């Protein structure tokens, strides 16, 4: 028909293209010249003949790219035989043998071929001559525009590939954390922090290019900037706590990885399950971690550096000054040498488990040994813990004037949520989990915590309910130890509270002369708050609840208690150097050696001072 008379048919896909189209609209193949009988093909003199090796190279690239599989997490192109991503260690999906991006590679190869065809015409292929000067200028303009566009696409693709090849695992975790802040995914941020990533790290132009979302990301942005911009207040509260810690942390478990692994194996070996109706897991060893007394022998400048690297200064300040939860008693802190120190740990959801192991063995729950034992106890002894939890929650609600009743299905749903938290690594834990941990340790746990939840702006959001004493009430008293451990709680985070070893306590005043063994270190833990009110005992049954005198009697039954000269009820946390685990002693010695070798330069006001000292 006359409608199709001017169109030309593509020799590759037979698509009918408009007369002025210089390549196929459907498959992007270059229009080939159809010679008349009187015309003979001739080679253009403006360019060299096409090298057949280039064509083979392009084919090989296409074949190789089709065989490679692309990681769905970091988009890195991996070799066909690799089962995990070489960059982010993500496992290969089931459909990895299928090319994930079939269109993009082929288009790149086609752009290369077509780009080469603009300047080179072989003997069997060349551009048709222009019928007029205007048409020739138009064709040249179109060809030049297409060529520059193709080159830009190819250069951009190569640039992205180079950036991806330079990326390390930490870089991908950082990009995932940035995307997690925008999307409200806290787990991505926690994964980056747990890997030791720098919270103050800024996005580079290359990283912004990879994220490919200009409306959300910009060069120089940090995780804090993104959290403020997208109003992620829960994430921002955690980030602000982390950013304020300027000092590089150096705890004993980090300095001695070999000894730390041996300690973890010791913990696993000491976990046993008791036979009987209440078949709960328990630890066979009584271990208490204290800061070594040798710290006091170090120069003041070295001591300050050591405390900066092992303590959580923000937690220490909040518990001491802002909330007056610990070290508020001058009698305990100074005269009885019972000052508590908040150890730094990871700010992920495992902080409760980390702090429990830090207060006992001085290490993290890196392999989730304690979390697994916690989950197994809740599962195997579910009936025992469920009854206590349900009775305690009902009483606690009624004590605040909330009179309501829940169906058993609702109670079961809430209990299933608590069980689920214990089984997920990184999930935040609640009061019930502390109660179960007291049974695993076979010793009381005292939590000194802030009373109110607060936003990063300082606004009160609600009660925390964590502070108090957690007793292993479901065990027999004879099966448990009376020496407690202490934890601190601040704004969704737990920290181990430990004391410092002493040379004996025969000169520390009344209430301390309970043992003449100089090898024993005793830390006095107050059982009252700064207002002299008795700390709450959690998860009591109806028979165990009573007046303050009855609860004090219960505390004396489960803990070693004494009343100081100032009339304060305190629990005694005892630890012996002779009974100290040898692996922990080795770990602390190796950690301290690094500080013993530091020699701070004295600042002399006059050079003659040093000479005078030598003369003397």
Automatic annotation (TrEMBL):
Start and end of every OTU domain? 340-500
- Source organism's superkingdom? Eukaryota
Q: Name one GO cellular component term.
A: nucleus
Q: Which UniProt keywords apply?
A: Hydrolase, Metal-binding, Protease, Repeat, Thiol protease, Ubl conjugation pathway, Wnt signaling pathway, Zinc, Zinc-finger
- Gene3D superfamilies (alphabetical): 1.25.40.560, Zinc finger, RanBP2-type
Q: Which GO biological-process labels does this protein carry?
A: cell migration; cytoskeleton organization; positive regulation of Wnt signaling pathway; protein deubiquitination involved in ubiquitin-dependent protein catabolic process; protein K29-linked deubiquitination; protein K33-linked deubiquitination; Wnt signaling pathway
Question: Does the keyword field hold Oxidoreductase?
Answer: no
Q: Which residues form the RanBP2-type domain?
A: 4-33, 65-94
Under catalytic activity, the entry for this protein gives: Thiol-dependent hydrolysis of ester, thioester, amide, peptide and isopeptide bonds formed by the C-terminal Gly of ubiquitin (a 76-residue protein attached to proteins as an intracellular targeting signal)
Q: Which family does it belong to?
A: Belongs to the peptidase C64 family.
Q: What is the protein name for this chain? A: ubiquitinyl hydrolase 1
What is the organism of origin for this protein?
A: Sinocyclocheilus anshuiensis
Q: What is this protein's gene name?
A: LOC107684588
